Amino acid sequence: MARPTSGQLRTLATFYEQSSGDSYEPVEEPTVVVTQAWAQVYGASTKDRTILSDNDRKSGITIKIRDSRGEFVPDPSKHTVVLDDYRYQNVEWNILDVRPDFDNDSFIVLVLTNAQEPGNNMESGDVDGR
C-alpha cells in the first residue's frame, strides 16, 4: 500500500468509550465520543487477514489515522469506532489490532472487525472474544 497523504484521509472515524455513568445498576452504559480523526479506509491486507483469522473473525477492514504522538492511543479493550461512510451505516467496529505504520511514522494502523458479527463479543478488554 502506498504511503497515505492528507488527501487520502477522507473518512471521519469517531472513537467511542463506555461511559462510567452515574448509576451502579448493571445496565447498558452510554458511550461517549473520545476523539475523531480522518482516516484512510481499505480492505484488510494479507497480514491483517491473518490477524482476523487468528482471532476467529471472518471479516474486517483496516484504517490508517494520523499518529497523535501519545495524545490519543486507540485501546482495543476500551474503544470502538464508527466510520462516517454510507457503506458502513449503522456499523460499529471493534479494534482488533493497533500498530505503528512503519512505512510512514506519521500514521498508525488499526485492524477493525464488525462489532455485530456473531461471536464477536469483545467486552471488558477481551480482545480475542473468549
Furnish the topology, listing elements before pairings:
Layout (H helix, E strand, L loop, with lengths): L10 E8 L12 E13 L2 H9 L6 E6 L12 E6 L7 E9 L6 E8 L16
Antiparallel strand pairs: 1-2, 1-4, 2-3, 3-6, 4-5, 5-6
Percentage of residues in strands:
35-45%
Care to count the β-strands?
6
Task: Give the radius of gyration.
Answer: 15 Å
Adjacency order of strands in the biggest sheet: 1-2-3-6-5-4
Q: Major sheet, described briefly? A: 6 strands, antiparallel, barrel
The share of residues in helices is under 10%
Shape: globular
> Gap between N and C termini, in Å?
32 Å
Number of helices: 1
Please, what is the average pLDDT? 84
Ranges where pLDDT stays below 50 over 5 or more residues in a row are 122-130
Q: Based on helices, strands and strand pairing, what is the structural class? A: mainly beta
> What string gives the helices and strands in order?
EEHEEEE
Protein name: Phage head-tail adapter protein
Report on the structure:
The protein is mainly beta and 130 residues long. It has a domain of 80 residues. The protein has 1 helix and 6 strands; from the N terminus they run E-E-H-E-E-E-E. It has a 6-stranded antiparallel β-barrel. A hairpin with a 7-residue loop joins strand 4 and strand 5. The longest helix has 9 residues. The chain is globular and about 45 Å long. The chain starts with 10 loop residues before the first strand and ends in a 16-residue tail after the last strand. This is Phage head-tail adapter protein.
